[in-house]
Design brief:
Strand order of the largest sheet: 3-2-1-4
CATH architecture of the largest domain: Alpha-Beta Barrel
Helix content: 25-40%
Bound molecules: zinc ion
Structural class: alpha/beta
CATH topology of the largest domain: TIM Barrel
Order of helices and strands: EEEEEEHEHEEEHEHEHEHEHHHHHEEE
CATH superfamily of the largest domain: Metal-dependent hydrolases
């Protein structure tokens, strides 16, 4: 089945352009041109007029098995976890996120969900995943990670994860905000363990994402050649310059501390981990703004699933990134072409070009004029089919 989509204004995954048509067949873009040129004849046209159209957006850091609004709840049964994930996937898609990278969930669930989504059994974004994260014994996020003691152990976990079908590897290198008792900054895996994990993953063609907050963790991760720093809370000027030189990307996830503070502390004013978020939020924002200024390549990620950081607020990261001085075009690139490269889905996603998925978002008002209009998402066309 063929049809044509036209719009006066369009972000194509790289830049803003005007008066474009997109010729779609069987969910794939087969032609792109200017509406002033002759368009293919006898094919139905949907004209979105002055409404901005963009590719589907990509969130490179989520935890779909977690319930952000019940953070104190026990993980629950397997059925409970799967139903939570299914609901979260639906919410993400409904907010324009058409591809995700999940960076940590209980064993075995993500390969099954990825398979179910690919077969059309559940509706949700395309899934790239890291399976279970890998951490030090008792380290950050141990509840949803494989715990490693030593180089042999960490190599074994990387190999096991690959055997279980992960697309990428996630390491927890330093402490974090939400693990009871752990400190924010210290290195939890040794430099030797980090190097071993990265070398094994790369040898097997898997990229490595690293949760790290502290200086020593960020430095060790960049030196080991990881592909992305997640959060990077204490990434100072020297470390940002290092990341830029090594081509290491940053997935800042400003939403995680923001929602922990603005929503979480209202619910739990005495929570130690939520108070910790409040202490670090400003320094994080300053560091991310600096990293962007000097040209560290950044990718959109929200950390949705962490306490009070909902799947229904995934587009608010646009507003938070804009507030620290990042321009709207750069933010859209972070959530499209840049994210597609990091997730290695750029052959099919991240831009509106011939051969790619015919996945479009339509905004009633223009977020390039006013960033809050990112909330005006009105229509979603997923692989050629209008779903909203
Ligand atoms: Zn996370």
């Amino acid at each position: 089945m063929e049809h044509i989509i036209t719009s006066h204004i369009c972000f194509d995954g790289h830049r803003l352009c005007h008066d474009r048509y997109f010729h779609i067949r069987d969910g794939i873009i087969i032609g792109v041109g200017k509406t002033s040129d002759p368009m293919p004849a006898d094919i139905p046209v949907t004209d979105f007029g002055n409404h901005l159209i963009t590719p589907g957006l990509i969130d490179a850091h989520v935890h779909i098995c977690l319930d952000p609004y019940a953070p104190k709840k026990d993980v629950g049964s397997l059925v409970d976890v799967i139903l939570t994930a299914q609901k979260n996937l639906h919410t993400l898609l409904d907010h324009g996120i058409t591809c995700i990278r999940d960076v940590g969930a209980p064993q075995g669930i993500l390969p099954a969900l990825q398979n179910a989504q690919r077969r059309g059994m559940i509706q949700g974004p395309d899934i790239v995943h890291c399976g279970q994260a890998i951490c030090a014994c008792g380290g950050h996020g141990w509840q949803m990670s494989k715990e490693a003691n030593g180089v042999d152990d960490i190599i074994r976990h990387v190999r096991e994860n690959i055997k279980e079908g992960v697309d990428q590897i996630k390491l927890m290198v330093t402490g974090g905000i939400n693990t009871k008792g752990d400190e924010l900054a210290p290195l939890e895996l040794t430099e030797e363990e980090i190097r071993a994990a990265v070398s094994e993953a790369h040898r097997r063609g898997r990229k490595v994402a690293v949760h790290t907050h502290g200086h020593s963790g960020i430095r060790a991760a960049i030196e080991a050649g990881v592909d992305s720093i997640e959060h990077g809370l204490l990434m100072d000027a020297k470390l940002a310059a290092m990341a830029k030189d090594k081509g290491c990307r940053l997935v800042p996830t400003l939403s995680a501390p923001y929602f922990a503070v603005v929503s979480g502390l209202k619910q739990e004013p005495d929570s130690e981990s939520l108070k910790k978020s409040q202490e670090v939020m400003e320094i994080h924002r300053k560091n991310v703004a600096y990293a962007h200024q000097i040209g560290v390549s950044m990718v959109y990620g929200t950390d949705s699933g962490t306490p009070y950081n909902g799947f229904d607020t995934v587009l608010e990261e646009f507003v938070l990134l804009h507030e620290i001085g990042i321009d709207t075009l750069s933010i859209f690139q972070m959530a499209t072409c840049q994210a597609a490269e990091l997730l290695e889905v750029d052959a099919t996603q991240g831009s509106l070009e011939v051969g790619k998925q015919a996945t479009f978002l339509v905004f009633d008002q223009d977020p390039f004029q006013e960033i809050h209009q990112i909330r005006s998402l009105s229509h979603i066309i997923l692989k050629g089919r209008k779903i909203r």
